[in-house]
TrEMBL record:
Organism the protein comes from: Stereocaulon virgatum
Region (Disordered): 269-324
Biased composition (Basic and acidic residues): 269-284
Pfam families: PHAF1
PANTHER family: PHAGOSOME ASSEMBLY FACTOR 1, UPF0183 PROTEIN
Record protein name field: Uncharacterized protein
InterPro entries registered for this protein in UniProt: PHAF1, PHAF1/BROMI
Coiled-coil region list: none
Family: Belongs to the PHAF1 family.
Recorded superkingdom: Eukaryota
Length: 507
């Protein structure tokens, strides 16, 4: 097999760098960074239940299929379906070799049972699966398992007998090549497949944490617990929880606990400024007429041309007053982007706000009065929902809304459809607040992801979007990138048309 990549087989752990438990975002990012080795990447998912049904990542040019659970998007199963695409090695030796007379083997050629037996040894973890009744097939499947790895072989049902041992059956009675190989976490395939998608993962989501040098990297966040009045608790994989308090947690606290951000983003978007309270002069109390920042302030504003209008002398005077008072403040405000954690934190100067819920006990809440100090004032938790516009920009962040109040009808978590979430939250805030929505068009508000992936599920509102690349889908028909924003006090939900929450903003 000349010019074929070689990958080490690690039972119960993974295949090469593909580590069980790794996040879909981490695996997909690594694969996309090697287009020559992995030229084709297909993603299959459920368009109606993208957070409940497993996500399949197919690599036809490499002969692999990767299976991720829906809620946490962690790698649970690695399948080798074509042994001719990649050279497999076990303990630094070839797991099998193709005959020299056939440098280009047939597609259905796989390792013989004797090759696997000689390389991996004997096992008593066998299982025979007879052909399905009424299928018309006379061929069953024999699963030859070791802890964490299993092979399947075709067997004529007429040749199988419980009195014949499996070694004899595969070596003499029905010698055949393996059809596939599976790598999983478990003692045997028969034992593991019952809870394959829900069992605890022994390895972290981050591939970097699975490799050397992990001591210098921050621990990953398992779950974000959103409490009342700006309190957010971050449960971590191996470290103690870290509590953020909006309006009090400083950027230094974030770097110390979560590590430096993957990126820092500064942007002032005028399209939302209409919903804000206009700034006022501290001496006169008069409201300014215009939001001040421009590109000359060092900020990114992609829509300046569409919002620029002529101004009279009074507007110019007001504009200069605002610029003098706030340009330095706004240039310091920014988003800390934590792509590997799955969230953003907005760093700004605090301002007064109403509490999320009335405190049960007498305690202080809200922002500090020291307006000269930058603090975390907002947190964006990204869902990484397959089929959404920002898919694979962030690792999926799982969250739960925990106000520590009376029992509600449903779980308030990241997997709950928004309709059920809103019905329960409406019990806390009576009225029609949750029914009012703003439409957010991702087609025009952001750049195309420019992905080489092929999405095999349906795009949000496009029936002809199947089997097209992400970039063409994102630039597709009207409304293809539309989402809706629903607000509750302190909470803002971005909801897709399939009722999945794409992003939760806590402020």
């Amino acid at each position: 097999m000349p010019n074929k990549p070689a990958m080490q087989v690690h039972p119960r752990r993974g295949l090469g760098f593909l580590t069980l438990g790794a996040s879909l975002h981490d695996i997909l990012t690594r694969l996309k960074a090697q287009p020559r080795t992995y030229p084709t990447i297909d993603i299959s998912y459920s368009s109606s239940e993208p957070l409940m049904i497993p996500v399949f990542l197919n690599l036809p040019s490499n002969g692999f299929r990767l299976r991720f659970d829906g809620p946490d998007q962690r790698l649970r199963l690695i399948e080798v379906l074509d042994f001719t695409k990649t050279q497999l090695r076990y303990n630094d030796k070839d797991l099998f070799k193709f005959p020299e007379a056939s440098p280009t083997p047939a597609v259905d050629t796989g390792p013989a049972f004797r090759q696997i037996y000689n390389r991996m040894g004997l096992t008593n973890l066998e299982e025979y699966i007879p052909p399905i009744l009424g299928s018309g097939s006379d061929q069953g499947i024999l699963v030859w398992s070791y802890p964490g790895v299993a092979f399947t072989f075709p067997v004529q049902h007429a040749n199988w007998s419980p009195k014949v041992d499996f070694v004899t059956l595969l070596s003499y009675t029905a010698p055949a090549s393996a059809l596939s190989m599976a790598i999983f976490d478990g003692r045997s395939w028969e034992e593991a497949r019952s809870d394959l998608m829900i069992r605890a993962c022994p390895y972290p989501r981050s591939l970097a944490l699975s490799s050397r040098g992990r001591e210098s990297r921050p621990d990953e966040v398992d779950l974000v617990r959103v409490g009342a009045n700006g309190k957010i608790l971050l449960d971590r994989r191996a470290s103690s929880p870290f509590q953020m308090v909006l309006g009090k947690t400083t950027p230094q606290d974030l770097v110390a606990e979560l590590g430096p951000p993957d990126a820092i983003y500064r942007k002032y978007d005028r399209r939302l400024s209409i919903h804000k309270t206009p700034p006022r002069d501290r001496k006169t109390g008069r409201a300014y007429s215009r939001s001040p920042p421009t590109n000359s302030d060092g900020l990114v504003d992609t829509d300046e041309s569409s919002t620029h209008t002529s101004a009279d002398d009074s507007d110019v005077e007001d504009h200069e007053m605002v610029k003098e008072n706030t340009s330095s403040d706004l240039s310091a405000e920014c988003f800390y982007n934590y792509f590997d954690h799955g969230f953003d934190v907005f760093i700004s100067y605090p301002a007064n706000r109403s509490p999320t819920l009335s405190p049960v006990e007498s305690e202080e809440y809200g922002y500090e009065s020291n307006t000269k100090k930058l603090v975390a004032t907002k947190m964006l938790l990204h869902g990484n929902v397959p089929g959404s516009y920002p898919f694979n920009r962030y690792r999926r962040s799982r969250w739960v809304i925990d106000f520590q109040i009376a029992e509600l009808d449903v779980n308030l978590d990241s997997e709950t459809p928004y309709t059920a979430l809103s019905e329960s939250l409406a019990e806390l805030w009576p009225g029609d607040l949750n029914k009012r929505a703003m439409v957010l068009n991702r087609d025009f508000w952001g750049d195309s992801p420019g992905s080489s992936c092929e999405l095999l599920g349906s795009w949000e509102d496009s029936t002809n979007a199947q089997k097209k690349g992400m970039e063409s889908n994102a630039k597709g028909g009207p409304g293809a990138g539309n989402t809706k924003l629903y607000g509750f006090p302190g909470l803002l939900f971005e909801v897709l048309k399939n009722d999945a929450v794409s992003c939760l903003t806590v402020y």
